[in-house]
Prior knowledge:
InterPro entries: ATPase_dyneun-rel_AAA, CbbQ/NirQ/NorQ/GpvN, P-loop_NTPase. Residues 63-195 form the ATPase dynein-related AAA domain. The chain has 306 residues and is of the alpha/beta class. The chain folds into two domains: 2-199, Rossmann fold; 205-304. Helix content is 45%, strand content 14%. It has helices at residues 2-11, 15-27, 48-59, 74-85, 100-104, 120-126, 141-144, 148-151, 189-192, 205-215, 221-239, 250-261, 266-273, 281-294, 301-304; strands spanning 64-68, 89-93, 105-110, 113-118, 130-134, 156-157, 165-166, 172-178, 196-199. The strands form three sheets. The protein has a five-stranded parallel sheet with strand order 2-5-8-1-9, with helices on both faces. Strands 3-4 form a two-stranded antiparallel ribbon. It has a two-stranded antiparallel sheet with strand order 6-7. Helix 2 packs across helix 3 (48-59) and helix 11 runs antiparallel to helix 14. The radius of gyration is 22 Å and the shape is globular. It binds adenosine-5'-diphosphate and magnesium ion (MG). The site of magnesium ion has 3 residues, from helix 4.
Amino acid sequence: MNDLIEFLKHEGISADLVEEVQHYADSHAVKEELKSRIPVPHFHYYGNKIWEEALAALLCGKNLMLAGEKATGKNVLAENLAAVFGRPAWDISFHVNMDAASLIGSDTFHDGRVTFRPGPVYCCAENGGFGILDEINMARNEALAVLHSVLDFRRVIDVPGYERISVAEDTRFIATMNYNYAGTRELNEALASRFVVIQMPPLIQDDLQRLLKDQFPDLTAKYNKQFALLFLDLQKKCENGELTEKALDLRGTLDAISLMQKGIPVRDALDLGITNKIFDSYEQGLIRDVIAARLPAKLRPSEVFE
Ligand SMILES: Nc1ncnc2c1ncn2[C@@H]1O[C@H](COP(=O)(O)OP(=O)(O)O)[C@@H](O)[C@H]1O
Ligand SMILES: [Mg+2]
């Protein structure tokens, strides 16, 4: 956690906000048995404006929605936020079969008796946790309706047949939502109105190079830059409509570099991470052209790393 505070200071995030969040984390205790739920992030989120908006919203007690294309760091930011606030986190991945019971909880038999088995939203609400509602727009509206009273000013959970419980003061929900993803739907207005919504921007070159340096410190300066530029080339082609957004997969680029570390030739690794995910041969050709313009055909992994 201290490491993250240091990172925020170093990035030049508003000193007032950093101080406030540090004070928050220091003065809001977490039960011993929940301490292992406080995330320890592997990656830092880069983007000062977004950091400041997100910190301000959460300090104001708001719930946050992070909306944007895939690989814009939504999950990285959500995890970083729980960590810097020092709160236990519950990751709740949404899918079409999600129902109210899997969020709130349901009755189960235990030792011959019916008892209530709390779901993740209930646990989070009870313990002042950060609930990460991941890809919330994958779920059906009926399932999401149970969240309305949790997320708005009422801050209560109604469990049919049980007492209502109120949502602990430290509880926050951070939803993520992907655009243009098969299977996603527009979020209904009733739900969207319960969040402060941040549109997550794509990475800029400078941050992208820092991210690559963070994750692959042994990349040479030259290829750190070339891989960043390659990603930005693909990004530009997506914006112009020459490539579909499936081609724009930062995770795929990072995977490819990991494969290079294991000795897979550079172009082959990029095929595995990026090109092969596209099933249109014309588009595959376009992607290979973009790659070829940046990286020689026979480039060996040993030339890319120091
Ligand atoms: N602004 C950013 N700061 C740090 N990492 C980022 C950023 N944008 C994208 N990433 C990287 O992209 C990858 C995917 O991030 P993730 O949070 O899973 O994306 P999303 O949830 O938006 O699809 C991760 O490896 C992450 O480090
Ligand atoms: Mg995600």
